[in-house]
Specification:
- The protein is an alpha+beta fold.
- The protein is 34% helix and 12% strand.
- The chain has a two-stranded antiparallel ribbon with strand order 1-2. A two-stranded antiparallel ribbon has the order 3-4. Strands 5-6 form a two-stranded antiparallel sheet.
- A hairpin with a 2-residue loop joins strand 5 (159-160) and strand 6.
- Helix 2 packs across helix 3 (47-54).
- The longest helix is centred in the middle third of the chain and has 14 residues, at 98-111.
- The protein starts with 19 loop residues before the first helix and ends in a 9-residue tail after the last strand.
- The mean pLDDT is 92.
């Protein structure tokens, strides 16, 4: 198993369509990586708890956590000196994965499980606490983004929406 590359990546150097999704999946595209990130969001920072709660084989989890650390998604912090032991925490880049984890949880609740096994609550420290129902909202106009309301602008030279351009072909968007 190879380690994840440091971020940021040049998407043009990846196989297939140059794309930030492909670059993100170079770092996060293995289930143990995302499950480790989930556990860190849930407040579990020690290796034993992450291993127990993900079900990941310890050797694979070790490799995933190292790769996430090399990519700048997690950082190790010492919590004990003798012997030296570390716990894992999300960096700024890792914390920005919250919408990804929330979207996977929401999709999984709707399509992948019979009964949701966990519920995230919003305003957990206030009397108006309620189950979190995340929507995709445009920060520019404040509107909820509906399926089909976007247009793809391809900026990678030699590519359009349908794939790589034939030599001499015009861009179609």
């Amino acid at each position: 198993m190879t380690a994840s590359p440091a971020l940021p990546l040049d998407p043009a150097e990846l196989p297939g369509r140059p794309c930030a999704v492909a670059a993100a999946l170079q770092v996060l595209g293995e289930k143990w990586a995302l499950l480790a990130v989930r556990e860190l969001f849930y407040g579990n920072h020690r290796f034993d708890r992450i291993a127990r709660n993900t079900g990941a084989p310890r050797d694979r989890l070790t490799v995933r956590l190292r790769a996430l650390e090399e990519a700048g998604v997690v950082e190790r912090r010492p919590y004990q000196e003798r012997p030296v032991r570390h716990e894992y925490h999300l960096t700024e880049a890792g914390l920005e994965l919250a919408p990804v984890i929330q979207a996977l949880l929401q999709w999984g609740d709707r399509w992948a499980v019979v009964t949701p096994p966990v519920v995230l609550h919003h305003h957990a420290d206030r009397p108006d606490e309620h189950p979190l129902d995340v929507a995709w909202v445009c920060r520019t106009c404040g509107e909820e983004v509906a399926p089909g309301s976007q247009r793809l602008e391809v900026r990678s030279p030699g590519w359009d929406r349908s794939g790589p351009l034939e030599p001499g072909a015009q861009r179609r968007g």
